[in-house]
Design brief:
With 128 residues, this protein is mainly α. Helix content is 62%, strand content 0%.
């Protein structure tokens, strides 16, 4: 788990603007945002999730945040990011398990999770 790095409101707005641009500066801004929001995402996860499912959900949440930042939509303030995280958790979190619950879907393999993480880190490529 990463440790949160404090970011004031003005610095956050600047990071969001920088993160929306492909390139080294955008990548560094995304990394700083991830370090800031990773503890929040993990704290907001349902406690009933298995560790592997929790890790997958954190990657799904971050993929949603990166997607919205790259599109340049909605995310202008801390509250916007928190709302997106909360909505993504609510939409993705499985309902509480019961004894009669159907078997869970197959989990992603380690290589699938690593590939997804690498794709998140790579900037979008412009079509040639």
């Amino acid at each position: 788990m990463t440790h949160s790095t404090p970011i004031d409101a003005d610095a956050l707005r600047q990071l969001l603007l920088q993160a929306s641009v492909n390139g080294e500066a955008g990548q560094q801004a995304l990394e700083r945002l991830y370090r800031h929001y990773d503890p929040l995402m993990r704290a907001a996860l349902p406690k009933s999730l298995r560790p592997q499912d929790a890790e997958d959900l954190v990657m799904d949440i971050w993929a949603q945040v990166v997607s919205e930042v790259r599109r340049g939509r909605r995310l202008r303030r801390h509250e916007d990011i928190v709302a997106l995280i909360a909505t993504t958790i609510q939409d993705a979190a499985p309902p509480p398990r019961t004894a009669a619950a159907a078997p869970s879907l197959p989990r992603r393999t380690l290589w699938q999770r690593i590939g997804r993480f690498v794709r998140l880190l790579l900037p979008d490529r412009e079509p040639s």
